[in-house]
Design a protein that fits this description.
about 210 residues; alpha/beta; 5 helices; disordered C terminus
Length: about 210
Amino acid sequence: MEKSGEARLILFTRYPEPGRAKTRLIPALGAEGAAALHRRMSERIVARMVVFAGKYPVDLEIRYTGGDQQAMAAWLSSDIPCLDQGEGGLGDRLHRAFAHAFAQGSRRVAVIGADCPGLGPVHFAQALAALESRDLVLGPAMDGGYYLVGLNRPAPALFAGIPWGTGEVLAATLKQARGLNLSTHLLEPLADVDRQEDLRHFHCHPDPQ
């Protein structure tokens, strides 16, 4: 999937292995059901990425945990590069993805997750457009995290010392950004699907045509 190389959209996801995917939903859905939901959400967001790439000059990339490159390509796409997220915490893995993209010549890079049913091409476009004038773009999740993070230059310290997995991720990231003098743009808040009470959000967002 050859594009301009100037903008890149990266999906962070996990191979949908029962017992390891969407573990906080296992009490409500069971291990198989939680993995199946994660599979559907990942497939849906990849389809939206492909729609976006058909209209916007952007490189697509998938970064995964669990499984292997062959399994990921067979599951989600043989046309989109699939790379292992690598070792370390989420901050280490995000830094690695951004560093790799910038080293390859990308100038505007956005990373998204698969957990946000309302996320789609309009948000991808808004994020990449904002990165033409802002250093950092964040998509606030209603649980206190974020569903998208975009940068137009390396900022490894942005991901250091963040209390991942808590409701303080967005606030801590914004504080870090202020300390680094990063100009910041916020997208609209959207709901993630992480807990049983979030499941209602999954069916509320039709796919774009």
